[in-house]
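Hi there, hope your week has been kind to you so far. Thanks so much in advance, here it is.
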Amino acid sequence: MSNLSNVNPKHIDLLTAALRSPSAHNAQPWKIKPLADQVTYELHYDHNDYLPEDPDDRDAYLTMGAFAENLELEAPNYGFKTDITPVFTRNGEDMYIAKVTISEDPNPVKGILNEWVPRRVTNRNHYTKQPLTQELIEKLQEYNNVLIEPIKLKKIVMEASMLSWANPRFVHDLAVWYRSSLDAPDGFSSKLMNISPLATLLIKFAFWRGHFKSKLLQRLYSTRDVSMFTAAPMAAVLTAKDMKPETLFEAGRNLLRSWVVINALGYSYHPFSIAIDEKLTAPKVAAVANVAVPVALYRVGVAKKAPEVHSNRKTLESVLI
């Protein structure tokens, strides 16, 4: 019997749309458990898809917050509304994040975020220097982002990137989630990351080596991304007051809102949280941004072209438990 038989047929399209939520390396580590009442679902984080470079589970809670927000924003597009109740319990490898109740809404109210959430896309191409509009600046600040000129973070991003290429766990993580086929349901490909054939060969060489002790090679592998980061007109640091699960979960919801509104107002974004993932550089980002806890970093601008490919997604049936 198919797992879909446990799902309310009316909810299949909505739940499938929610799967377009973002996740590090496109790992899609969420699991959905339908309950017997046919209206309630448990949202779980699957530690079998655990990322070694997320030892504090920061990315786990951000990812699940973004997933919950994606589900809530999509609901009116399908004639529903959601009630999301955080849980945050853990049993071994399983993290039970939240309970979601889906109910019909005959008169759904839709705003710009509801309209644009299905069209949200990460753009890893080069950006122009066109400045952000005041409307976008205010929206990003409303969602707890601090905006900074990328050049002020250049040395920090370079240091973080070089440290990462020297870290066997980081390189192993990339190797695990790299996909040669564009048809793979998860992970990332060279096309998705906007990497040239030559750069792809260099990446595969890094996988073979495991990591780089040479500062020269570390810098070589870091220069392209740092150049793209500093060429953008603005960088955004998503902030939080602490690292508690409930705080990070809400920050993940703010991150999803931020990325949707960026697209809605004609701009693009590209995550660069490597500078926050690294323990040595995260405090430096916090100091430059003058914030207590930075939880995500990304560049914002007008992209010179649209992405060539979009990331694939697992099927709804494959994430049900």
About this structure: DSSP finds eleven helices and eight strands in the chain. The chain has a mean pLDDT of 93.
